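Hi F.,

I've been meaning to write this up properly since the lab meeting, where we talked about keeping a consistent format for the predictions we share between groups. The idea is simple: the sequence comes first, exactly as it goes in, then the structure tokens exactly as they come out, then a line or two of notes. No screenshots and no reformatting. I'm using this chain as the first example so we have something concrete to point to.
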Amino acid sequence: MILGDLKPILTGKVRDLYEVGTDRLLFVASDRISAFDHVLGSLVPDKGKVLTQLSLFWFDYLRNLVPNHLITADVRDYPADLQVYSDALRGRSMIVQRARMVQVECVARGYLSGSGWKDYQQTGAVCGIALPSGLRESDRLPEPIFTPAAKNHTGHDENVGFDHVVDAVGPELAERLRSLTLAIYGAASKYAESKGLILADTKFEFGFVPSKDGGDLLVLADEVLTPDSSRYWLASGYAPGGAQPSFDKQFVRDYLERIQWNKQLPAPALPDEVVEETRAKYLQAFTLLTGKQELPE
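Output, unedited:
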């Protein structure tokens, strides 16, 4: 997102990050949508607001379980040089503490789907965790599992075993990440169930910020439990034995497969009806989880 003369320090597939002083960052969620590692040629209206508002909801819901890096999402509290961009930033941005990020994607799975299902078909395990034989796609697992991934900034994150995490960050932090990831997943999935949703799997990112006592505090960071980072299914339609309709980008991926896109640039634009249906799915997830009917203007 272009903010006058301000230049982002990082432009991701969806988010743009700007420096706010030396110890803070401005996160701005755009309406871009990506699939198969490419940003597509269409915007999905309000998508960035959904991602931001859901992250804010979950940061607040989980605040007694895990601290986070959020400072404010109220544009009235932003620095003076950002006030001129209030209309563009309202509802889709937040100012956060700059964190020293842990270079591990912390994934929790309660159901067998996505890359976990592919791994299971090939090895009978997910990230080295052996699972019972005979499980079907989308089956509920005997218990949630921690299935980390190595961050890959040039493509898909790579599923790895727990030993990889131990080697990367040390045994103590690895255990903390696993325990915290599963605790957050447990709390979030229980809440989602109360709203008629199944949280099949999700990924978290953690980082360290200075604590009040002068040490380092491990915090939940980036986006949290959004349709871009999580797989939500309607409980009322749950039918294991195949893929489930979800609130993530699978609807877009299915369209791209139907038109047999070669997954190379240039990325195609989406038809209006696909954009509209995708927007509706994001908004439905927002409404079901938060109980709110409208996004911030």
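Notes:
Residues 171-194 form the longest helix (24 residues).
The chain has two domains: 1-98, 100-237.

If this format works for you, I'll send the rest the same way.

G.
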